[in-house]
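Page 47, continued from p. 46.
Same chain as before, 529 aa.
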Amino acid sequence: MSNDNQPIGGRYSQYALGVLLVVYIFNFIDRQIISILAEEIKADLGISDAEIGFLYGTAFAVFYAVFGIPLGKLADVWTRKSLISIGIAFWSLMTALSGTARSFTALAAYRFGVGVGEASASPAAFSMLSDYFSPRVRATVLAIYSSGVYIGAGIGLFLGGVIVDEWKEAFPDPALAPFGLKGWQAAFFAVGLPGLMVAVWMWTLREPVRGASEGLTIEPEPHPFREALRSLQSVLPPFTLHNLLRLGGRPAVGWNLAAALAIAAAGWGANALMPSAIQWIALGLGVYAATSWVQALKLREADTFAMMFRSKAFVLASTGFPCLSFVTYGMGFWGPPFMLRVHEVNLAEAGMLLGLGAAVGGWLGVTLGGVLSDRLKARTPNARLWVGIMAAVLSLPSAFLFLLTDSPWVAYAASFAFSMTSPMWVGGGASTVNDLVMPHMRATASAYYILMITFVGLALGPFMIGQISDAYIASGLGDGPALRNGMMWSIALFAASTTLLSLAMRYLPGEEAARDERVRVAASAASSH
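Result:
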């Protein structure tokens, strides 16, 4: 069903934004709750900091990023609201089933499933919202949607802490609890099952007209699932090789195998430096899948490939913004365990105060950043990149204060400040990559952008902090100071993001202004091949 008679940015568009915000809140409740449950899961399953970082990050991230590519393609050619609805139902079920896990392997398998389901949401939501609202307010709208990250994360921390403490009080002997469930297992059930009702609500939403916000007419794809299947074949080994053979012959397969060998060698080297075979195998498979997809995209959709990867601004922005997410994901995940270890607060207190700070501070910061990006955009085309740099600079004092203070109350206040400044880039980052491509390419471009955030921020941030923490613990340092050192090292990625976004400023104004000309050149080059 379409909203043909609904004005762009009107009441129904605002209602749709509200529904999608609720979807994203549930997305992050289910994703983030493992943070407050980390110490309980570690004790129950007997796993290390690096392994819990893997469960939160890489186990989820690889499947989220890889399946985000074909699901992003499906969002470009099929009914987006239906795709999101099906995805919510699946990830909610996988979250609930996480409560049945009795081993590291089982919990990892369910996290894989959560990643696949959640991959359906943001590329399709970015695309829908870009059609519901005018480009003039795009950063603001995407920022409001993206604030669900912090509201959901905060609610997840709060609920996780409360549920575990209440469960322990009600059932001090786990053997007498319903089905023998521990508190952390009950928490997964409590946050997973309500998502099934949200899936039904999402199904009722009207599908916006693709390209309507910019006065463009986009012809519908007659075979959407066939196109999505082709995209899936481009990321799923060993179908990747068959797909490339069909598209580009033996030379394409040769280049692909060479890339696979290089990725395997890099993984072997990383494992030698930081031993964790499952981490580097999973991440290596994810990087290989992404590499195969980019190669297939170049052969099958040369115009889309050119609009993305021949744009220096797109490449730099889709690397620079994810470096910010390395710090925000890492600090966000390890914040609760840090408070428990260093300040010895109780679980419910940490969940409530960190959760409240993340929800309120994150909502304020991401919304303020989006509004600021849009208002400054009228003065300089680089406004959204400047806001990204500003987020890094403003977050440094609160990050160091959180890690170095001896007072838990100062740490809570610093965490709130960090939650407010660190996500100011979110809306501007998403709108930057959407502005550089055409409407029918946005979900694909968003899928790649989210892939980069997921690999750099989610797969590496929490794991690397955990790995560094484990190394310090092995050297004899206490688990609290060890975790502090790991989190301190992660802040260095702010410097990398600032450098990359500064470089992007050289190219973004010209490439954004010449978007229509670039797509004509790309289409002409594609047809000549």
